[in-house]
Design brief:
The complex is a heterodimer of chains A (about 280) and B (about 375).
Chain A lengths: L1 H5 L3 H29 L3 H4 L13 H8 L2 H32 L5 H13 L2 H15 L5 H26 L2 H9 L4 H30 L2 H6 L7 H4 L4 E2 L2 E2 L1 H30 L7
Chain B lengths: L3 E10 L2 E11 L4 E5 L6 H9 L6 E6 L2 E2 L10 E4 L11 H11 L4 H15 L14 H13 L5 E5 L7 H18 L2 E6 L2 H7 L2 E6 L2 E6 L1 H6 L4 H6 L6 E8 L2 E4 L3 E3 L2 H4 L5 E7 L4 E4 L9 E12 L3 E9 L4 E10 L9 E6 L5 E4 L11
Parallel strand pairs in B: 3-8, 3-9, 6-7, 7-8
Antiparallel strand pairs in B: 1-2, 1-4, 4-5, 9-10, 11-12, 11-14, 12-13, 14-20, 15-19, 16-17, 16-19, 17-18
Classes of the chains: A mainly alpha (about 280), B alpha+beta (about 375).
Amino acid sequence: MAEASSRPEGSRGLFWTTLVIVYAAIMLFPIFWMASMMVKPNEAMFARPTQWLFVPTLDHFSYVIEQGFHWSLLTSFVLCTVSTALVVIIGTPAAYAFARFEMKGKDDLFLFILGSRMAPPVCLVIPFYLIYAKVGLLDSFLGLTLAYMTFNLSFYVWVLRSFCRDLPVELEEAAALEGWSKVQIFRRVVFPLLRNGIVATSVLCFIFAWNEFLFAFMLGGKSVTTLPVSIPKLITSQGVRWGEMAVVGMTALLPVLAVVFVLQRHIVRGLTLGAVKG
Amino acid sequence: MSSIAFESVFKRYGEVDAVRELNLTCAAGEMLALLGPSGCGKSTTLKMAAGIESVSSGEIWFGDKPVSRLAPGERNIAMVFEDYALYPNMTVWENVGFPLKVRGITGQPASQRIGEVLQLLGLRQMADQPVRGLSGGAMQRVSIGRALVRDPEVILFDEPLSHLDADQKVQLRAEIKRLQKLRQVTSILVTHDQTEAIAMADRVAVMNHGVLQQVGAPQDLYERPANLFVANFIGEPPMNLMKAAYAGNRIVGEGWEVTLTTARRAKLPDGAIVAGIRPEHVTVSAPDVAGDAGGAARGTIIYREPRGDADVLTVALDAGSGPGGKLVAEIAGPTAWRAGDKVSVGLDVGRLLVFDAASEKNLEVAP
């Protein structure tokens, strides 16, 4: 009922609907264009006037597979999944501890954790490169996982701490009265209530890692190439392979869209998480 | 069932004493209310009894067992929280049964006890509903059920009625008291609401700034408050407190004066005092009958608040020079008095309390 009554009436409603559709069309047009480029023959790519109708081709797809781009996709996927999983495993207890426990220098430590996100990434990547060159982590899976964890962990802890703070502390006190240990309380009371917050925050971490270019470019190499880093390889001495670029770009976009669609409910709920109150 | 005793208990947060040298006993089976304004240390005291907060110094005894080093789970206590603290992803049945499940009590014995408690609280019909979406009153019932289900030695109530609507408040107040007497379980109730404390508790302990002010039966606190804080905090409308001087057998205030009996006079030293009198011990009459016994002052009614069965009148006293003090009178009503009426005010001298102006202590109550 509330929805119906809050909807503007008649022509005003029509105006807003049109506006939203136009806005969506503008926003989505580049994606549509990229999708069409995937199957557009090279001759039609830059034809003037624009050729809206053409015979679709799968040439771009076969080239991308031939060149082994699917390995980059796999690298990206494993790298992001592993680094995000580690962030969740380490970051969740850390965020809880920051929210609940008293310790010396807590606020300073917390600010320090955030420090890694304050500097522009390009400032951080140089020391990373020098250290990695010394210890032999350049172009290694472990090296990139660690690098991604440093910036995602700080973000994750920062956001999840506020989720933890929103949980009513009485729930934990009630469980303590029943004789549960801190670990049991965390696992069986806090964790289930934090689930939506964890999903929402870790999805954001996954997306950050997935879209990351600079670290992957500087610290990766021939053996560890993520999807975003692989795209510039399509700028070849024989010219730019636009169709193939569209294929890889679309491939990079799809998992993010899929994740957001599937987990949308959790994300929205996570972002509006609150305690049960009467 | 055991008694609870606080013995010289301190709670310090850095430089601040949240609770200072608390000595207080709650007898077995008794319900004791901790009453005071927010920040007076009553919740901290409760949490120390629960073991959620540690004790800085002193000892807490359950019966003859010192508990201040025990973890909350080892004290066999249950707690009812202001925000209910129910597990949102469980049903009513599961929430009430939770303490049993944790202790490994399952099957027939468990479901029998849960069933009994739900019956007692009138929650039988809601057993399978999730607690999310229940009314505040129902949630608090579930929370009380969770406390009762395993027969704890002590139940601690932390502002259990603050978030409820007025009608549910009254209903649940009576119900908590009934269940507490039925089960004879030692209970401490923390509240900032004097009506709640007086209605539910056998004895009331008033706290302010971390210091215990007075403990006693509700009527004791009402009739013989130990100091100005208790006098002012208990009673609605609050007690009239007026600066005055005491000399000989006369108390002289701003625009009023009374004479004490010789018996009382012997106990009181001369000096600056604060006189206290409850509004229901103030009488108001037409000015022409003034001057006789009890007529202590003249004044003008500046405000009349009808309460149905009584009227609360605020009277501005005429002083010899300039405006005098104000006095609130509560008289059986309805009356025909109106704002602006000139009146004569009588004080029931026998009920007048005398506090020392400097120490704020009631001079006639033994410390």
